[in-house]
Write a structure and sequence with these properties.
The protein has 139 residues and is of the alpha+beta class. It contains six helices and five strands; from the N terminus they run H-H-H-H-E-E-E-E-H-E-H. The chain has two domains: 82 residues, Orthogonal Bundle (Arc Repressor Mutant, subunit A); 55 residues, Dna Ligase, domain 1, CATH 3.30.1490.190. The longest helix has 14 residues. Bound molecules: zinc ion (3 copies).
Length: 139
């Protein structure tokens, strides 16, 4: 998980400061587990206004500090990003979210761009399944 220091330098590199409310919200997010909803942050940070929470989530998302993960019921949750381009694995049993990256996958997208003539700006891939812990529990 991204440390406060690395988040502070990521903000600074784009000309933003880790203000007291931003620091408070990041600390709240670190305590909320591997993913959370905007309302979870609002509830856990009663001293920070709702509008500030949403504005901060948007900023942190734009800077790649927070990413969105679409859960298997279609709801979008937030997550502190591990840094760098990555995709998510979502466990359908316990709801755990983890990250993976794949050069092969990104190469496939280059190939799709070549074949279709698209300039690909963004893509999203979430993988749903059963995590190793839940598989071990199931025996
Ligand atoms: Zn992510
Ligand atoms: Zn699981
Ligand atoms: Zn990708």
């Amino acid at each position: 998980m991204a440390s406060i220091d690395s988040i502070e330098s990521a903000l600074a590199s784009e000309g933003f400061r880790l203000t007291a409310p931003r620091r408070a919200l990041v600390e709240v997010m670190q305590g909320l587990g591997d993913h959370f909803m905007a309302d979870d942050v609002v509830e856990a940070a009663p001293a920070v206004g709702r509008a500030t929470v949403f504005r901060t989530l948007r900023l942190l998302q734009d800077l790649g500090i927070v990413c969105q993960v679409v859960l298997d019921d279609g709801t979008a949750a937030y997550r502190l990003a591990s840094g760098g381009h990555h995709h998510h694995l979502v466990c359908s049993e316990c709801g755990a979210v983890s990250d993976f990256a794949s050069g092969d996958l990104e190469g496939l997208l280059d190939d799709i761009a070549r074949r279709t003539g698209y300039r690909v700006d963004a893509h999203r891939l979430e993988v749903y399944g059963v995590c190793p812990d839940c598989r071990a529990r199931e025996g």
